[in-house]
Amino acid sequence: MKRRICTVIALLTCYCLTFANGSKDTKAGNSGTSSGQKKITLIVWDFKSGEEITGAAFREMDRMFMAENPDIVINHVAQPESNYYELLMSAFTAKSDVDVVLSHTDNRAWNFKDFLTILDPYIGSVIKNYSPAALKACSASKDAQKDIRMLPLTSQGVGFYYNKQLFSKAGLNASKAPASWDDFFADCEALKKAGITPVILGNGGGSTFGIDFVYRTILAASYGNRISGFSDGTANFTDPEFVAATRLIKRLYDNGYVNVENGSMAYFQDAINAFKAGQGAIFIGLTSDIAHWKDFGTALGYENVGYFPSCTSAETTYPGAQVNQGAGLGFAVVSYSPNVAAAVKYIEFYTSGKGGKVFMDASGALVPNETIPVDKSNTLLTEILTDMNTKGIPDFMNLVPGGMVSDMYNLEYLYFISNETDEDGYIQALEKLYKNSL
């Protein structure tokens, strides 16, 4: 009898242990593979999966990744772009459950770099496949060989797109993009006389992106690689180059070449949609992500879209300069994630090979990884790729202190749009803001 009781107790103990192990609910998941191995759940935050095209691409990429990695489950969480970085900082501070995050490769990311895993030990075998310029943008120390905190999803730049049909309607040579600012203004005058809005800018919603993007192209051509001085104070807003750039943009406004509603029109998506609808002839756009070659080529017909990276002026030292951030968006692994190895595998998949190709084909983004084939039969795309690869100049707004950007946008609005200050007051206010932010 005593032996039977001991046997029952032993069986009950084994049952309880089995039940406890089988029902344990952790972040790694509570379901197993066919072999009994527990699945890992990766929680991914981004601000793009809520978009129709990008969201569909991300879902397909997640499906492909999970098919290849049946032990990993992806939980993709779409966050609002408007306060995304505030949400990230709150999540990081609270050490909330999140493994992978999408981020811009600018100062917004470097404000919380300590929460991003240093990827160097994990990417030794694949680092050669990424563009050095893109890796530099993804490095907290701006070194393409070390301190990599993200893998680049997009190679981002800024340049001018123009509607060839509207140029022809105004009697202009649609196959000839303006090379100088004198050409630019002459074309704008011809367009205006033909009843066509020459330039569409979007500066509403508290962010003067239209003005900001035009500045980037002018300053890239004016400073060349000296533009890096805006990161350490050796370049200034009182420089003749910056003052000249300011006067070129002011001339666009004074001559009535900019859409009158630009101050209330948000760049994303209202201004973009206005250009796609043929409401203006010239638009300052991006080379990746959105407002790019595929976006406009699909809307207007690739044969009807022209591109030029910048225009020359008296201050130009680098003709044909192409603003190139190296990388616009990147995926990072959160430093306190319990699943770093799986998360690194996931972001490698997204930014290379089959995964990256799905994203490029769907979105038109330029993914800076040589394992992804690019359709070079598209002449618009080929031209942009050539400019990005051979004429790249660092992006001015990736160099200035991140803490001054919001106030800078406010000053741009006061000067160019509401005319509440004069040139000297505007320049001096920018310089003071800059010096206080370094």
In short:
This protein has helices spanning 2-23, 52-68, 84-94, 107-110, 132-137, 164-169, 181-193, 209-223, 240-254, 267-276, 293-300, 340-350, 353-363, 379-390, 405-417, 423-437; strands at residues 40-46, 72-78, 100-104, 151-152, 157-163, 199-200, 282-286, 305-308, 322-324, 329-333, 392-393. The chain has 438 residues and is α/β, with parallel strands linked by helices.
Strand content: 5-15%
Question: Treating each run of at least 4 consecutive H or I residues as one helix, how many helices?
Answer: 16
| Helix-and-strand structural type | alpha/beta
Q: Provide the gyration radius in Å.
A: 25 Å
Biggest sheet record: 6 strands, mixed
Shape: globular
Helix content percent band: 40-55%
Strand count: 11
Given as residue ranges, the uncertain stretches (5+ residues, pLDDT < 50) are 1-31
Order of helices and strands: HEHEHEHHEEHHEHHHEHEEEHHHEHH
Average pLDDT over all residues: 91
CA distance, first residue to last residue: 83 Å
